[in-house]
Amino acid sequence: MDTPVSTKQRNYDPANPGLRPFHSEIANFISGKTTPRVYLESCIEAIEVREQDIKAFVALDLGAARKSADAATERYKAGMPLSLVDGMPVAVKDVIETEDLPTEHGSKLFAGNRPAWDAACVYWLRKGGAYVLGKTVTTEFATQPPGPTRNPWDITRTPGGSSSGSAAAVGATMAPVGLGTQVRGSVLRPACYCGAYGMKGSFGTITNQGILPFSRGINHLGTIASTLEDMWLTLHYISRNAGGEPGHATLPGKTEMPAAQKPARLVKLDTVAWPRVTPETQLAFDGLLAHLRAQGVEIVTRKDSSHVERFERLIADIMEVSDGIRDWEARYPMFPYYDRDKSKLTPASIGRTENEIAAATPKSYEDALRRRRDMQEAYAALSAFADGCITLTVPAPAPKGMPTGDASFLDAFSVIGMPAVTLPLLAVEGLPVGVHLSGFHRADSRLIAMSRWMRDLTLKRH
């Protein structure tokens, strides 16, 4: 694959995004047609060409990466790969601990911080033969303000946040997979803006051990990837090996791609973001829905179902509920950080700690949890007549400048903990826009089966 040159804007084509898949190369590793070391060198070439403009990484150790790729190459030559992720370079968001690279959480407070251990997800990826290509830019503590990373499709635009560096690294072909975290929309939104696939699994199915302890009642580890296969196989491998959160089961089944499955009925959700959708984005999305209908997929809206209407009403004030959970749960670690040395925190973190977090109370948290339960019950009721829900990932392509972007389409699914993906199937103004599909708790594999069917169907149109 040719390494793209660094340009101001590249026109996005969903059928030919030009990214760097990994799992489709495994057969070539086994046959000896190519090797994990050759694959890594193509990633490094992209880094050398584009990193100066994109600024995806805060730390790289290419020497260690080459040693890991060489070891994987020898295992494939011997016919003894360790797993489906053996030889895969991974870009790791810098709120996820790594024992051999700094973990600074995007904050001056943690400058030079060197954890003694890998996070559970990183440890088990390494056990399977994958390796850390580098640590990627994040907003401070995965919240605000934006970092220096630029969008690989147009460097005048945001890559989204807070998993900005991981998404940009994938979108710029520097890595096939990036790890991110999502409390509101911090995996799916940057994946969407950067033309990548992104997923957060059912809440609790992947452990957060070794990941910044921020809003544990909502936080999801997710994958951002070049392909649907890279996204799912990596996420499922982590879940089945690293385990879930305490008291939660892992994702079920084997680590393999499910067969494509056509959904019979999908709920089209407006959410609070719909009024902000641009005409060009709405036109592209309506075209997709019309194509699904032509294939026999029934699309149900709030006008057709009282169950859908109830869920839409409950999530109308989702930001208030999300903030009610996040602000209380953020008291630790934000108050200790603030007390240790607030001069090393950004104004955004100081202001939030002094205001929203300080104002959170046990009652405000309990109220938010009660409202979340109502949303979860209403969403579960949709499973009686629909296979999943469909909407946009964002109201428009990545905006100019460096805001982290609009998470309004995504917030509710993080709060209620349902599995969700963004599929980079739309091009608007020459830039990627994602289609958001959500499923039901621990039915993640079924969500991927529907995503596979929709991807294959949609790309045939282009």
Strands, helices and their partners?
Layout lengths: L25 H6 L4 H19 L2 E4 L1 H16 L11 E5 L26 H8 L3 E6 L27 H8 L5 E6 L5 H6 L3 E4 L19 E6 L2 H15 L22 E4 L10 H16 L3 E3 L5 H9 L3 H12 L1 H11 L5 H13 L2 H21 L5 E5 L18 H6 L3 E9 L2 E8 L5 H16 L3
Parallel strand pairs: 2-3, 2-4, 7-8, 7-9
Antiparallel strand pairs: 1-3, 4-6, 5-6, 5-10, 9-11, 10-11
Would you mind describing this structure in some detail?
Helix 4 links the parallel strand 2 and strand 3. Strands 1-3-2-4-6-5-10-11-9-7-8 form an eleven-stranded mixed sheet, sandwiched between helices. The N terminus is likely disordered. The longest helix has 21 residues. The protein is an alpha/beta fold and 462 residues long. The chain contains 15 helices and eleven strands.
Key terms:
462 residues; alpha/beta; Amidase signature (AS) enzymes; 2 domains; 11-stranded mixed beta sheet; 13% strand; disordered N terminus
